[in-house]
Amino acid sequence: MPGRKFADGEVVMGRWPGSVLYYEVQVTSYDDVAHLYTVKYKDGTELALKESDIRSQSSFKHRKSQSSSSSPSRRSSSRSRSRSPGRPAKGRRRSASQSREQKEDKKKAMQETSLALPVLVVRKPSENNTKRYNGEPESTEKNDTSCIILEQKLKPDLEVKHVLEQYSLRSRKDEKKKEEIYSEKKIFTTVKPIEKTSKTKELEFGGRIGTFMLIFLLPATVFYLLLMCKQDDPSLMNIPPLPALESLWEARAFGIFLLWFLLQVLFSLLPIGKVVEGLPLSSGKKLQYRINGFYAFIFTAAVIGMLLYFQLELHYLYDHFMQFAVSAAVFSLALSIYLYIRSLKAPEEELAPSGNSGYLIYDFFIGHELNPRIGNFDLKYFCELRPGLIGWVVINLAMLLAEMKIHNLSVPSLSMILVNSFQLLYVVDALWNEEAVLTTMDITHDGFGFMLAFGDLVWVPFVYSLQAFYLVGHPTVISWPVAAAITVVNCVGYYIFRSANSQKNNFRRNPADPKLANLQFISTATGKGLLITGWWGFVRHPNYLGDIIMALAWSLPCGFNHILPYFYVIYFICLLIHREARDEHHCKQKYGLAWERYCQRVPYRIFPYIY
User: Fold this and answer.
1) CA–CA separation, 224 vs 220, rounded Å?
2) Could you tell me if 290 and 404 lie in one domain?
3) How far is CA 366 from the centre of its chain?
4) Most confidently predicted of 186-195, 473-482, 511-520
5) Which stretches are transmembrane (predicted)?
6) Residue 186, phi-psi category: left (phi > 0), alpha (psi -120 to 50), beta (remainder)
7) pTM for the full predicted model
8) Do 409 and 495 sit in the same domain of this protein?
9) What is the structure's pLDDT at 395?
10) b/e string for 374-398 if b means 16 or more Cβ within 10 A?
């Protein structure tokens, strides 16, 4: 085990990730497992750096003095080459010859001096900078300057040539001689831009024990909710009896689920829709994604319409709802095992920042690999919107048809129409704005493991459709004025949700867009801005506020006889509070003092004047 070189509290020079620039930082802690130092910059930004990216201040001062003293010695050497006083003078011709010789020596010495090590002065990013920029931030304070000396340890590449041209460094003779001089002198350092993914330090969901329990608790919760909805009295105190295990599995249901999954894969592979790039990864690479989710929804609607035209009994899904849920759970478990096994061979820079703890159960649950792909087919991106989200709409339609058949209705009930309409709008909006999902934490930060696989394939279609499933067995009659009031609530929630997400996504994509000129923001040391006007100046997570309002509108058509339809609202509030706490912690580490300034400007997190 190698020992640590720098102590906590020591002020050193730390390299800014992805560059050759060093800034003055303070060591705050050291990870014995990952061998990484946590350092704090002057603006409050905290980063984890390797020991090779940290140098003592004394080494910089020593090299600076060496470089500054090299030129005088060479100049004194050139002056010592003057005529010896013991030699006889040979007139003006001799003096002219010596003069030319001195000029040549002086010119040669200047060329040698031009190769001396340059001292770069760079400014540390300032928290007071509010100018929009795309690269590394510039500072306007004089106290944040640090002198940086660059050393060459490898043969110069394109980056070195750029630095040489910037500081007008020239060789003594021709280009070939310059290559030899640089290989011998080794003046500049070449730094690889790709950073390895560090180990996950802070574990979520209760760590290893918590994630192990959730692997069993999540499926049990889904099955319990579905059994409750089947009862005549779905109250909390009326615990449903456990069905026989053999009744939970049906090969036909599993086959239909597999057919559904493969159908969505086929639609996603069609060469239609634009191809866009995602956000840069830690390696600087950008993955490409085909945006055709809305087309897949249209094709799915056409297939379902054809099946109904040929009088396919779609309410079969309602009659075997539990068997379909079990089939989806088994498939998601098998997919999670495959994802974890393949992640063991993935390069370190392709691992997820949140799922690289080294603990098998935790990484299996969170997801070890960030963007698992089979060729160009992105498994996580596909499951995020396609089979589960579109399947949610199909399940709601099946519940609507089942209600009409069971209760001998010529048209669906007003409550069922509201639930189907509200949730259809939500799904269509997500597919229409499919590109926006590329900026979410699910894509940029979380790995693809059991949590997302089960959530996308089981939790979303079978729990989010809970209201429609409930209304089949427990019809609720509402008046038109009540329906109008519920519609207004849903529209308000949707407007907040969509406009807030649009502001955030457009600002992330292109902060210089003239359409966003009226938005104000706080600049951060990472090059990104924090919006302090619009919805993001109202509360810190306005999209979560819109989500909760819409979830309430989806449950209100079910009435108030039982709390079961409102499970989704309670779950959504708990989920978003957890996400909000995770976002707060992540942003505080990422943006430092800039995030503290933002929190002072926007004190409320989700609910204005409450929380």
Assistant:
1) 6
2) yes
3) 14
4) 473-482
5) 205-227, 251-272, 293-312, 324-341, 452-472, 478-497, 518-539, 559-578
6) left
7) 0.67
8) no
9) 96
10) eeeebbbbbbbbbbbbbbbbbbbbb
